[in-house]
Automatic annotation (TrEMBL), chain A:
Family recorded in the similarity comment: Belongs to the acyl-CoA dehydrogenase family.
InterPro entries according to UniProt: Acyl-CoA_Oxase/DH_mid-dom (IPR006091), Acyl-CoA_Oxase/DH_mid-dom_sf (IPR046373), AcylCo_DH-like_C (IPR036250), AcylCo_DH/oxidase_C (IPR009075), AcylCoA_DH/ox_N (IPR013786), AcylCoA_DH/ox_N_sf (IPR037069), AcylCoA_DH/oxidase_NM_dom_sf (IPR009100), Mycobact_Acyl-CoA_DH (IPR052161)
All residue ranges annotated as the Acyl-CoA oxidase/dehydrogenase middle domain in the record: 124-217
One family name in Pfam for this protein: Acyl-CoA_dh_M
Cofactor(s) of this protein: FAD
Keywords: FAD, Flavoprotein, Oxidoreductase
A GO cellular component entry from the record: plasma membrane
Domain Acyl-CoA dehydrogenase/oxidase N-terminal span(s) in chain numbering: 7-120
Domain of life: Bacteria
Gene Ontology molecular functions: flavin adenine dinucleotide binding; oxidoreductase activity, acting on the CH-CH group of donors
Protein name from the UniProt record: Putative acyl-CoA dehydrogenase fadE25
Lineage of the species this protein comes from: Bacteria, Bacillati, Actinomycetota, Actinomycetes, Kitasatosporales
Annotated Acyl-CoA dehydrogenase/oxidase C-terminal domain residues: 231-372
Automatic annotation (TrEMBL), chain B:
Protein name (record): Acyl-CoA dehydrogenase
Domain Acyl-CoA dehydrogenase/oxidase C-terminal, residue spans: 181-305
SUPFAM superfamilies in the record: Acyl-CoA dehydrogenase C-terminal domain-like (SSF47203), Acyl-CoA dehydrogenase NM domain-like (SSF56645)
Organism: Streptomyces afghaniensis 772
Keywords: FAD, Flavoprotein, Oxidoreductase
Organism lineage: Bacteria, Bacillati, Actinomycetota, Actinomycetes, Kitasatosporales
């Protein structure tokens, strides 16, 4: 067991820290769930990319630095410790990109990844439908074969970032006669400004358009934008779902920084005894999550894959994040009610955590069945 | 960075698990709870022969293999998993205390701890010491120093019948000046945290097995979502306490150990509540084996630093440095 980092990794960390110190905006950007904020965050992605810091773990040919998994974790620690802005491109970077690396063609990677790395193209996800949430495989939006591609028709919803994003990826029913709901699905990429697409932003709790409904009416998608075999979409989407729930979407660096921020707030408020234990739990939880991730990364480097364990992560960080921000708002007293603060923004964001990326109820079912070996039951 | 136990450490855990599985520890616990230490001492010798106490004894002393806190944590997870009775944590703590005594005292008192010939207990202030009636070495810690206590008072029962609490008789030879050191307390807390983690893991395993077997309404109760989700939460709590325990063993920083203690004991205790609920009435009986772990999870929460004390240390150390 060893928690020390190699000189090369420490050098990488120092380089990241120095760059961030010189470049992170001194004032927080406006909320990325607003038009202005989205544009500002997109510009920040370009600034990161210009010096090769937007996708450090990608190969150099697509804009990365070929960083190892451990180096990526260190980058994330430095990134959030520096108070750097949220990543507006993360749906593409953490969900679509791993899918393309695993299942895409060389041509797709060359075409899609560089503009994703610079923020020139921001991607939204298009998984859920009005009647297909936790039971995603029951989705009904269809892809119908046409000359040179597919025509998409149907409705997607809760599509994060779609109010301002450029393109989207998601699952569509390409074979209505497939015997089981998980079969006959295609994984497709499409343009949110293509003819036939209507984007209707949805205001989240605080009124900001953080997600959108997508109405699709015979939207043409060329064959080159199908990932993998049509009909294999479910398997392809699930093979990288662990990224969303686990390691990649919520790195420990985020929560280490959040816990430090909470601790500073607690001190600034006069170190009240009433919240001491909750501040401690935030500090302890961040360390637990960091060490849990180091252990997972070590297993990954040994050649093991990250499977249902990612469901442990997802429940843990999503509940942790809410508890931390509830503590912050309680500490702020009357000020905690104000909606135009950074803490309020983060609190509202945290509330969605137990719902997106597979509800925590679905994650607990996965834990029960696949990690504890309990019999399947009715949900 | 490689944050996983190595093959040798995993083999050590497996060999202890095999030793303890073969030892019928529930029967030993029943004897111990009645004050009959015979079978417990026999088991103690075997645990000592496996090298467990030697991990806390510096290798410069006869029989010492330590200090090796990571391996100690590995061992204590297994001891907790099998509900082994006796002053395990206290013997480790005594070894760490005595390592700081003058060389003559250390040389005289440490080897029997490593070999398992002597069980030790430690009392702090006016608190109870665990199993003072079984211990051949009783260390009484106060602000002015650590003394070799000449005896113990009457046994008070613990909520965990396997833990027999005794006040220590004042006076006796002064071994060390000054109070219990931060380092000795960290070892006590690390061992307690690892033991609690093992207790929690055993409770989860037994409860998972129970809900797969137990049928109501014609199906195993483990197929009900209310049951499954409680067990999933127990699994999450234990899985995130686990790396804290081993991270603490690696660094041995007091705040990090306190964090591990708080998290492991919370995880074990919440798992105990789940285990009791999901076993139903049978879990509430003294006779059924589950009680060995249920009651220990409660007792370990407040042993060597209650949850609030541990959390306070975490907060006071935060900001000084990154973990």
């Amino acid at each position: 067991m060893d928690l020390t980092h190699s000189p090369a990794d420490e050098a990488f960390r120092a380089e990241a820290r120095a760059w961030l110190h010189a470049h992170v905006p001194s004032e927080p950007l406006p909320s990325l769930e607003t038009a202005d904020g989205f544009a500002a965050h997109r510009a920040w992605e370009a600034e990161l990319a210009a010096d090769g810091w937007s996708v450090v773990n990608w190969p150099g040919e697509f804009g990365g630095r070929d960083a190892t998994l451990v180096q990526w974790l260190l980058f994330e620690e430095e990134y959030y410790a520096a108070g750097a802005p949220g990543r507006v491109g993360q749906n593409g970077i953490h969900l679509l990109a791993p899918t393309l690396f695993e299942h895409g063609t060389r041509e797709q990677r060359a075409r899609v990844l560089p503009s994703m790395a610079t923020g020139e193209v921001i991607w939204a996800q298009a998984w859920s439908e009005p009647e297909a949430g936790s039971d995603l495989a029951s989705l009904r939006s269809k892809a119908v074969r046409t000359e040179g591609g597919w025509l998409l028709t149907g409705q997607k919803t809760w599509s994060s970032r779609a109010a301002f994003a450029d393109r989207a990826f998601g699952l569509f029913r390409s074979d209505p006669d497939a015997p089981k709901p998980h079969q006959g699905l295609a994984y497709l990429m499409f343009d949110l400004r293509a003819p036939g697409v209507t984007v209707r932003p949805i205001a989240r709790l605080d009124g900001k358009p953080a997600f959108a409904e997508l109405f699709l009416d015979e939207v043409f998608v060329p064959d080159e934008d199908v990932i993998g075999e049509p009909g294999q979409g479910w398997r392809i989407a699930m093979s990288t779902a662990g990224n969303e729930r686990g390691l990649m979407l919520r790195s420990p660096g985020r929560f280490l920084a959040a816990a430090d921020r909470l601790h500073r707030l607690w001190r600034a408020q006069g170190s009240p005894e009433s919240t001491r234990d909750r501040v401690a739990d935030a500090l302890i939880g961040a360390r637990a999550y960091q060490l849990f991730t180091y252990a997972a990364a070590s297993r990954f480097l040994d050649g093991e894959s990250i499977g249902p364990e990612s469901s442990l992560n997802k429940v843990f960080w999503s509940e942790y994040d809410i508890a931390l921000h509830e503590t912050a708002l309680d500490l702020l007293g009357e000020e905690g009610e104000l909606a135009d603060t950074d803490w309020a923004e983060r609190y509202v964001f945290s509330l969605a955590g137990p719902v997106y990326a597979g509800t925590n109820e679905i994650q607990r079912d996965i834990i029960a069945e696949r990690l504890l070996g309990l019999p399947k039951g009715r949900r | 960075m490689r944050f996983l136990l190595d093959a040798e450490q995993r083999a050590f855990a497996a060999s202890l698990d095999a030793l303890l599985t073969a030892a019928d520890t529930p029967a030993v616990v029943r004897d111990w709870s009645r004050g009959d230490h015979t079978s417990g001492r026999a088991l103690w010798s075997r645990v000592a022969q496996a090298g467990v106490f030697a991990l806390a004894v510096p290798e410069t002393y006869d029989g010492g293999l330590g200090p090796r806190p990571v391996e100690l944590a590995v061992a204590f997870v297994e001891l907790g998993r099998h509900a082994v009775p006796g002053p395990l944590v206290e013997t480790v703590t005594a070894a760490v205390i005595l390592s700081g005594a003058d060389p003559g005292t250390a040389k005289r008192l440490l080897p029997p701890l490593a070999s398992g010939g002597t069980l030790a207990t430690v009392g702090v202030g006016r608190s109870y010491a665990l199993d003072g009636d079984a211990a051949g070495l009783r260390l009484a810690c106060s602000s002015d120093g650590i003394r070799l206590s000449p005896g113990h008072g009457p046994v008070r029962p613990s909520l965990d019948p396997a833990r027999r609490l005794t006040p220590l008789t004042p006076g006796g030879e002064l071994l060390l000046a000054g109070p219990l050191t931060e380092q000795a307390l960290a070892w006590a807390r690390l061992a307690t945290a690892a033991q609690a983690l093992g207790v929690g893991l055993a409770l989860l395993d037994r409860t998972v097995a129970h809900v797969k077997r137990r049928c109501q309404f014609g199906v195993p109760i483990g197929s009900f979502q209310a049951v499954r989700h409680r067990l999933a939460d127990a699994k999450i709590a234990l899985e995130f306490a686990h790396p804290l325990v081993f991270g603490a063993a690696l660094t041995m920083r007091p705040a990090e150990v306190a964090a591990a203690k708080a998290a492991a004991c919370e995880a074990a205790y919440s798992t105990a509540r789940t285990a009791l609920q999901l076993h139903g009435a049978i879990g509430y009986t003294a006779e059924y084996g589950l009680s060995l772990w249920l009651t220990k999870a409660r007792a370990l929460r407040t042993a060597w630093g209650d949850p609030h004390a541990c959390r306070a240390l975490v907060v006071s150390a935060a900001g000084d440095r990154r973990w």
